Amino acid sequence: MSWQQRIEQVLHQRQQQGLLRRRSAVTLSPQARLTHGDQLFTHFSSNDYLGLSQHPAVIEAWCSGARKWGTGAGASGHVTGYSPSHEQLEQTLAQWLDFPRALLFSSGFAANQALVFALAESSDTLIADKLMHASLQEAAALSPARYRRFPHNSLTGLVRQLAATESENRLVITEGVFSMDGDQAPLAAISEHCRAHQAWLMVDDAHGIGVIGEEGRGSCAQQQVKPDILVVTFGKALGVSGAAVLCSAEVAEYLEQQARHLIYSTALPAAQADAVLASIAIVRQQPEYRQRLSGNITLFRQQCLHHGIALTDSQTAIQPVIIGDNHQALAVADKLKSAGHWIQAIRPPTVPPGSARLRITLSAAHSERQIAELVEALRHAL
To answer: Is 57-285 assigned to CATH 3.50.50.60?
Structure first.
């Protein structure tokens, strides 16, 4: 089969299965709004949980940073792309999250893959939650290490895998908040089992940092857990983009020598680091954003319960409504868009087969009226 034939076959199959993905050019604006074409929507698909991507202080920090540093780093951080702003951001992250070191990466995807590829050798074992992010699944599968998975959030499954492996180096990988289900990992118990079996723990807290725990320190701080490696991203609650790895001084120095995503990639712009610093300051000093988000989550769940709309047990900003069938999920999402609510249907392989869903994400930027209108439209669409 030629490439052209293969491409046409895959596209046809995806269309038939209701799995074809398409992008839409949209214009984002404050108050959780977006415009597509000539239509204005209330935005319920963003990971901008605190609305900080539209915060004047964050925008001004980026603009003033661009005037000071220019618009790009121009090189890898190992060459000339590492500025005083990058250094300050790493120091701030380390102090805020109580780790010896922080290293900046262009994205959470890059940070996760850099870690796995730099650490894992053929004599090592990676033990991961079955629903961990695609970046980690791919890196673990492609690494030379043995790769084992345990059922989602199953402590029994984790212990079984730990007991069944004898590698000197074992890395347990999980997430703080899972991006498609919105549930949280039992990190305290997982950490205890890791210590009992002399295994390292890595936590990807992309969806927990900024919104959970005191000062928004995330899932690990909330559960009083200190993993060996913590990954946080700046593109969700912090409202910018990029990521960081928090770790020991020795691991950081090792990654500076071995992490190809760090060594061979242009550093994120210094102006972007300034914007992240401004966002962190807001998160730490203004808890009212987290309080508003928490109130919106409670309001949404109460109103769905009142109208008999089935939800999962998620207590986070991620509130999935499981539909099951791909085509039906698309149809419900289209009905909601017709009512002025922008919500994407999430389908396999992002989620397991038969669990297509609406991934509703709430923000501190949503008003009570917007939430009430969404629930009413959701009731009719379902």
So the answer is: no
